[in-house]
C-alpha cells in the first residue's frame, strides 16, 4: 500500500470510530466524538452535534455544552437543525438549543461573542422578544415561537 492509501484507510477507521462513539453510553465520549466529527468537516458532524446538544453540560451552566459551542461556531448553517431541536420533547435539549439559537442570532446583530457593537443589543433584544420563545413554555407556544423564528431567520438560512 502507498502512504496515501494508508492515511486514507486510517481516516476512514477514525471516522467510523467517531461515528460509533456518538452512540456511546458515556455522554462525555459522545460529546467529544460529535465535536471532532464537526471540526473535521464530516458530513455527519452537524447531525452528531444536534444529537448530543445536551451532553456533557457544564455543572453550573446546564445550557453550555461542547456540541452547543460547536454549533455556535458553525453559525447560521446550523440553524435549521437547532430550530428543530427547539421543538423537542426533551427539556434539556431545548434549553441547550435555546442558548445556541440566541448566540447565533446575536451574532447577526453585531455581537462578536464578547461584546456588542451599538446599537446591536437593543435591536436584537426587540427581535428576540418578538420571537417569544421560552424553552420551558407550553408546547403550543413553543411551536408558534419556532414558526416565528423560522420566518425571521429565513434570509440567514437561505444564505447558507
The tally of strands reads: 0
The largest sheet is: none
Please give the alpha-carbon distance between the first and last residues.
Answer: 39 Å
SSE-based structural type = mainly alpha
Average pLDDT taken over every residue: 91
Give the radius of gyration. 17 Å
What's the order of the H and E elements?
HHHHHHHH
Count of discrete structural domains: 1
Which parts are unreliable, with pLDDT below 50 for 5 consecutive residues or more?
1-11
**Number of helix segments?**
8
What's the shape? globular
Strand content: under 5%
How much helical structure, as a percent, in the residues?
55-70%
Describe this structure in words.
This protein has one domain (3-158). 65% of the residues lie in helices and 0% in strands. Helix 1 packs across helix 2 (27-39). The longest helix has 20 residues, at 139-158. The chain is globular and about 45 Å long. With 160 residues, it is mainly α.
